[in-house]
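#struct-help
A.M.: can someone run this one for me? Single chain, 204 residues.
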Amino acid sequence: LRPLDLTNVLVAADALHTVRANLDWLVTAKNAHYLAVIKKNQPTMWAFLAGLPWAEIPTGATTRDHGHGHDETRGIKAATVAHLDFPHAAQAIRIHRWRRVKSRPATRETAYGITSLTFEQAGAALLATFARQHWHIEDRQHHVRDVTFGEDASTSRTGRAPAALAIFRGAVITAIRAAGYRYIPEGRLDHVTATAALNLHGFP
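D.P.: on it. Structure tokens below:
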């Protein structure tokens, strides 16, 4: 992101990149805004957000999707909270997702986030749009990285190792999809030997 002009651009960050120094740099050095996901790898902040009186806060926006064998409903709540323990954080966000996939039990998921955008700059409806755009990438890339490769649970967080591992995972995901696989785990299972893995990436 360093060479890019990010003035007034919103940058969405998954849990792995929700780091105080990163978010501060986006705002102070790049004049950007952020929407950052908070998961349990930030246990103090996650517990603080989970403990907010969400039952007293009205749902700001609700969206529903139906197609490709699944139904999904997402409700978002946003609240201006003073003294959030992250630089420039202005609002706390809670997204509740209910999903039913054909022939499977319905699932519920609650996600938390923070943003440097104030309520005057972005209310719940606009934040819901931003979050949905972020989760489109999440479903295509980061969900696969987390569930299939265990990226969020990785203990490698120093130096250039996380970035290098992310590049390797991305290359594997891209190669499996290019080979025609719809499901990444299936593609991995078909390429567990060194020879099969090299063939997948086009090495003779």
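A.M.: thanks! The radius of gyration is 19 Å.
D.P.: also worth noting: DSSP finds six helices and six strands in the chain.
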